[in-house]
Amino acid sequence: MKIQIFCVGGTIDKIYFDAKSKYEVGSPAIGKLLAELSIHFSYKVDSLMAKDSLEMTDEDRRLIREAVMNSSSDRILITHGTDTMPETARALLGIDGKTIVLTGALAPAIFRDSDAAFNVGGALAAAQSKPAGVYIVMNGEVFDGDKVRKDVEANRFVGLAS
Amino acid sequence: MKIQIFCVGGTIDKIYFDAKSKYEVGSPAIGKLLAELSIHFSYKVDSLMAKDSLEMTDEDRRLIREAVMNSSSDRILITHGTDTMPETARALLGIDGKTIVLTGALAPAIFRDSDAAFNVGGALAAAQSKPAGVYIVMNGEVFDGDKVRKDVEANRFVGLAS
Amino acid sequence: MKIQIFCVGGTIDKIYFDAKSKYEVGSPAIGKLLAELSIHFSYKVDSLMAKDSLEMTDEDRRLIREAVMNSSSDRILITHGTDTMPETARALLGIDGKTIVLTGALAPAIFRDSDAAFNVGGALAAAQSKPAGVYIVMNGEVFDGDKVRKDVEANRFVGLAS
Amino acid sequence: MKIQIFCVGGTIDKIYFDAKSKYEVGSPAIGKLLAELSIHFSYKVDSLMAKDSLEMTDEDRRLIREAVMNSSSDRILITHGTDTMPETARALLGIDGKTIVLTGALAPAIFRDSDAAFNVGGALAAAQSKPAGVYIVMNGEVFDGDKVRKDVEANRFVGLAS
């Protein structure tokens, strides 16, 4: 098994700069997270961009789609901001022969109570278990990429009826 | 979706008693872990026993198999000690129509660097994604229940060639 | 012993709002922190304001000084933003008969690697151990309130030669 | 300032070996703990022994007393098991010109909810703030070394009336 991990920013990677009292997107959290666990399959982490997902453009999504298509791996995990994760999922539909799983976190990975490790564990398992297609793993659930939205009020992902 | 979670003990549930300077198996860690996350699907946690997996008997495994067969759910997650997790997986083979996923942790869930949340996230995703059968999710991998062993020296799970 | 704890905001209390992608000062972190420890002396936590310390005004410092003077306790702990902690310490000089200790954190208490618990432990010990006067406890050191500055570049507190 | 830190074992240093399902005393936790914080004063960590404090003998306490007396530093911090910490404190009474502070933890430093960082922060502050003598810092309090006992039932330290 070989999993290609692409990181594009989002809350999971958010860090905090004291002087300026604001968050910025830092280096991919999933790299440190996996390095601290006992992982023995082959994976590669590449940062494509480091953006708050609200600021992602069509051009950014085109770039992600290209990276996925050009990857030699057919198991792709993408860490992504939560606000527009469903939009990016839809922009990745229709790529033959690849299982593409998006995940992220509702709280930065550096937080004591972050959901990052739980979500990444789920996304890795889905990437190995699901047939080709696009999926979002958040809140402990594996959603089809074209049947999920973020409920911003409730701060969670909700499946759409088929 | 409805997931039935059975807990039988193991390292994931280990706690520590200062006075006696030793570990004992405590109440199921997965209950607290899921309660602290934002989980919105229906799940039920039942503790079947609280044993170090080295002490599990054929009778214990018969009891687990019965609980799985009697469950009205066809998605089953079992938290289990790591040392004999593959033996229990094999004792659960051949149950029709149910996806059964075993997981646990190499370090107790109360440890700062425990793999518990990561593993449970993976096991939940596998339980939703895999066809009927028995699986072990450890070290970020989804193993077939009849093709995995624990490498005790290396303290990790290894897949067996088909 | 009775310790009065005043909270005025700062990094230690910073929380993060996903929707807006920015930090805001939340409720006093020291309350939750002490509640989770096994503390048996009498203490009281009062929030005076919730400000980034760069935004603190002379009026704010007058308000803090009044609260300290009006407190019936002679052991006072103040959690405060780090950037202007020395200024507030100086504004509290010359209050007879009270040991006043300021502390805070370089990383929010909700962060995995926050120095909050370490600093608060130090501040409590200093409040019990020091004669009347004003002190800052940061970076594991007990500084005299009139002989300390924050080295913003190095992100740490440095004592001034007497 | 120069602080000499001696480590003699105890719960704070407890680690866990999966294979044997039991705890053992590991290398000094205070070294890692301080290394991860932003500490800029000079300190030295020396491990004198690695014992559960229930197993400490008079000979062990004689060895600790000698190490303290032979140290060139007059600010000494000792991390110690909690069960007999008061006994060791009493064995260190009457050393002229040195401030000696004992601390430890009710839960191992590797636990998510350990009191280790909080206690060590307090012990460092007390070592800097107190006149020569012997002290115990536990549960957020600075106790005189000859006026404190551990309440084993309540799992906490209690001051004795003078």
From TrEMBL, chains A, B, C, D:
UniProt cross-references to PROSITE patterns, sorted A to Z: ASN_GLN_ASE_3
- InterPro entries, per the entry: Asp/glu_Ase-like_sf (IPR036152), Asparaginase/glutaminase-like (IPR006034), L-asparaginase_N (IPR027474), L-asparaginase_N_sf (IPR037152)
Query: Where does this protein hold substrate?
Result: S53, T82, D83
- What is this protein called in UniProt? L-asparaginase
Q: Name any one Pfam family assigned in the record.
A: Asparaginase
Named from the GO MF annotations, one term is: asparaginase activity
Question: Which catalytic residues are annotated?
Answer: T11 (o-isoaspartyl threonine intermediate)
Residues in domain L-asparaginase N-terminal? 2-150
Origin organism of this chain?
Arenicella xantha
